[in-house]
Amino acid sequence: MLVVGLREFFDNVYEYVRKYGGLVQTTGIDESLFTEFLGDYSPVHIERMTELVAKRNDIKFQALIREGDMNFVCSEYAEYRWLPTELFEPVPFYVFGDSLAIMSFQTTPAPTIVLHKIPAITHSYRKQFETLWKASAIPPSNKTTSKNKS
Fold first, then answer.
1. Are 34 and 42 in contact (CB under 8 A)?
2. Domain 2-134 has what CATH class?
3. In this predicted model, what pLDDT tens digit does every residue of 19-72 receive, in sequence order?
4. C-beta of residue 85 within 8 angstroms of C-beta of residue 51
5. pTM for the full predicted model
6. Domain residue ranges in the chain
7. How far is 110 from 101, CA to CA, in rounded Å?
8. DSSP string for residues in 30-78
9. Do residues 64 and 83 touch, judged by C-beta distance below 8 A?
10. What letter does residue 138 receive in the DSSP assignment?
C-alpha cells in the first residue's frame, strides 16, 4: 500500500499508538527532512505525540539517527541513539505493530512512503532494528539543538 503523504503517515502512526500503545522503532532518521517536509504540521504532530505519550505508559519511541546528529526534535517522547556513520542510510523505516513503512526523500515527488502490513516482513525489520539499536551509542544529550524547538 502506498501512503499518499507524510502527514497522512504520521496521522496513521498517531492513531495506531493512540488505540493500541506499543513500540515504534525508526531508523535512517534525519529530523531536518521531516521538519522541512511537514512544515507547520511538524510542531502540531510533536505536541500531540508528546501529550499522548505523557498520558500513557504503554507507548515507547526509539529513533536511530546518524552519529553526531544533535537534532533531537522529538526528545520529549522519543529516545535517540546514534547509529555509526558507516551503518547509517538515509532511507527511513518505521516499525509499529504489524506495520512497516519504508521512506525515500530522494524521489519525485518526495517523500515516497511504502506501508507494508505483512507481519513476517515487519518482524524481520524489527529484528534488524534491534540489532542496530544495540550497536548504537547513547548521545551525550537527548535535548534538541534544533531551531524549531523553543
1. yes
2. alpha beta
3. 999 999 999 999 999 989 998 999 999 999 999 999 999 999 999 999 999 999
4. no
5. 0.88
6. 2-134
7. 15
8. -HHHHHHHHTTHHHHHHHHHHHHHHH-SSEEEEEEEETT----TTTTTE
9. yes
10. P
